[in-house]
Amino acid sequence: MKSTFFSAVPLLASMASAAPVEVRQATNIDTTVLQFALTLEHLENVFYKNALKNFTLNDFERAGYSKDYYNNLKYIAHDEEQHVLLLSGALQNAGVKPNAACAYSFPYTDVKSFITLSSVLEGVGTSAYLGGAPLITSKAYLTVAGSILVTEALHTSLQRLAVGEVPMANPYGTPLDPTSVYTLAASFILNCPTGNTALPFTPYPALTYTGNACTLEEPSGKISDLIKRNGWGKWGNGHQGQNQCRAISGGSTASFTAASAVPAGSYLTFVSGLSVTSVKGTINGNTISAPIPTVDEGQTYVFVSSKDVEGALDGTSVLFGPSIVEVAPQPPTINYSVQ
Known about the structure:
Radius of gyration: 19 Å
Distance between the termini: 33 Å
Strand content: 15-25%
Largest sheet: 6 strands, mixed
Strand order of the largest sheet: 1-8-7-11-12-5
Number of strands: 12
Order of helices and strands: EHHHEHHHEEEEEEEEEE
Shape: globular
Structural class: alpha+beta
Number of helices: 6
Low-confidence stretches: 2-25, 214-245
């Protein structure tokens, strides 16, 4: 097992490379990054608006959520709409036609499964902006991306709290590269308008968590397969006020199923906060398992990699993934001698 820290965010291998100290961007791809960000914001915009159309305040109250929480969801929906308008305007000002929203399929069936999926989706959005920041050349665009990142992180905290998870489970945000983010987002996309500009990303082969972490798809908080879309596996702790399920813990063994046979000698690579840890996997056909690193906390992305990654995870070593698991944080420690 090898645990390392990001000294550079993992980048799309065909567009940039991860370096030990700095990222050197040979080509200005700002409009591609903006188009990618717009793709994610379109998805979130439709996701929240559909839920607000489908579920009333009474639905949320029957599920145990307050009027204040319901109103906060309206603020999130408003935010996502504003992000769409801002990014579309930035692309138009740059002389680029903004991509339109696609058709989506979101596998939630009730208020609780919607909130559960939202908590993870917001986490991915936060990771996407953090991971995409080094790709941006323009300081003005970088400021805009940072501004949106802050808001997405606030959304993430609200939704994590709503499903009984520690909002700030990890001291650090987790950067995620564009190809990995697109792999997760593409699983919700049915089709896109023919006039849209194709993004330069090819999804990785799927990896699905096959363990027994709990979700909120059922009123009892029991394990369910209703939400199971490629990397979007089973997650969550259960709604506050109910008998909560527990997230998996660092050190426990996690098992994953890949889209095809896992090559001998492969590793499970865990990305959590600023930590990248590779663990030699136990392989049986298309299943691979390994202990979860004890340094992992909160929403964690898991890949099958061809080698023991050191420094940063890049696309050349990814075989499958990412999958998503929620890892219970360690109890907080406070050293009062640190001034």
